[in-house]
Amino acid sequence: MRDHLLPRIASGAMLLLLAACGDRSTLSPGADVGTHPLLVSPVSSLIPTVDIAPAKGWPPGARPAAAEGLAVQAYASGLDHPRWLHVLPNGDVLVAESNAPRQPAKTGIKAWVQKKVMERAGAGVPSANRITLLRDADGDGVAEVKTVFLKGLNSPFGMALVGDTLYVANTDGIVRFPYRAGDTAIGAPAEPVALLPGGPLNHHWTKNIIASPDGRKLYATVGSNSNVAENGMDQEVDRAAILEVDIASGKTRLFASGLRNPNGLAWNPETGVLWTVVNERDEIGSDLVPDYLTSVKGGGFYGWPYSWYGRHVDARVRPQRPELVARAIVPDYALGAHVAALGLAFYTGALLPQFTNGALIGQHGSWNRKPLSGYNVVYVPFREGKPAGKPVELLTGFLNQDGEAQGRPVGVAVDGKGAILVADDVGNVVWRVTPAAP
C-alpha cells in the first residue's frame, strides 16, 4: 500500500467510526417545527453525533425536485461556491462566490472533526473572494452574461445597495463602492465603513447586511466564535449578535444579542419588523436545538450561550448568568434541529402569489444529527406579520439515494420578475423557481 494513502484511509476510518457513534432523533418528523416545538432533554456524549452528507455535485442534466405547481432550472452554473445573492433594481443579480478565510490550524479532536466535516461537506475549498454579476438580458430565465463584478475581497457575503453606493460585508468589515445602474464591473478601490469581529479564530465567518428602509443604517449579522463560549466570553465581544451600523459615521452598536449564528435578514413587508434565521448550538443531541426564524427586537437578548430556545439553561456554560437567562426571548418559530437555516427572503413578487408575504428559507443541511435534516428550501406562511402554519418544502432532492449531497442551498432571493433564486454552493449553481408550465 502506498504511504501517501495511509493518512487518507485513517481519516476515512475515523469518520466512519464517528458516524457509527452518537444518538438518533426520537421525535416524530415535524415535532420540532413551528410556533410550539416539542423540546426534549439534552443528550450528553463525549463524542458528538456526526452524520455527513459527502459533497457529490449534480450529475449532468440533474436538478432539484420542485414542489407541485413549480418548475426549477439553472439560472447560472459553473460558479465557485456561490453563497449569497442580491438582486439589483435593474434586475441584475449579484452572487458572492465565497468561503471561509484561511485560518491558523486548531488542535484537538473537536477541531480535527470539524475540519474533516467541512471538507467532506464541500466547504473545504479556497474562497474565490469575489462577487459575480449575472444578467438575463433576453428574458429567457437563464443568465447569458456572467462577469466578475468585484474581486480581491475577503470572504464576502452580504450585500446592500443604498442609492448609488454598494455595501459589501467581508468577514472582517463592511466596505463600500460606487455603483451606476448597468455596471458589469467595479474597478474603484474599497472604502472602509466599519469593522466587524474577525480575527484568527472567526468560528462563524459569514457576515450578512441589510439596509434600513430610510438608508441611514446597516444591520450586520455576526455569528459566535464557538459552539457554547468554550473559548471564553472575551472571544465573543460583539458576536452572536446583530449590530447596527450608522452609515454616515461608521459607528457600530449592539442591536440584538444572544443569537448564536444569525444569517439571513429581511424586513417583514406587512409590519416593517426585522426578521432573521439563526443556527443554534450543537452537541446536545439530534433533537436539540431547533434552528429558528424570529423577529428581532432592538435591545433583545435571545439566550446564547447561557440558554437555548428561551430559558432552557445550557449546563455546559461556565459561569452561569441567571439574570440574563431570565430575560431571554423565546424565538417566534422553530425550523427543526440542525437544519442550518441560512437564506431568508419574504416573497413580495407577483409571479407566485400563493407565497405572498411568506418567508422563503434556504436550509443548508445538518452534520450533527441522525437522520440528516435540512438540505431543502422551505416556505413558511405568514398571516398578519406572524408565522401561521407548518413549512412547505419548495425544493428537495439535494441529497441522492446514497445520502450524498448533490447540492446544498444557501442564499435565497426574489428576482425582478418574481421568480425565486437559490444559491447552491455544492452544485455551484444558482437555481430559478417559477410556476410550472400548464
UniProtKB/TrEMBL annotation:
Taxonomy of the source species: Bacteria, Pseudomonadati, Pseudomonadota, Betaproteobacteria, Burkholderiales
Family annotation (InterPro entries): 6-blade_b-propeller_TolB-like, Beta-prop_PDH, Quinoprot_gluc/sorb_DH_b-prop
Protein name per Swiss-Prot or TrEMBL: Sorbosone dehydrogenase
Species: Massilia varians
Gene3D superfamilies in UniProt: TolB, C-terminal domain
Domain Pyrroloquinoline quinone-dependent pyranose dehydrogenase beta-propeller: 65-285, 329-433
Coiled-coil zones: none
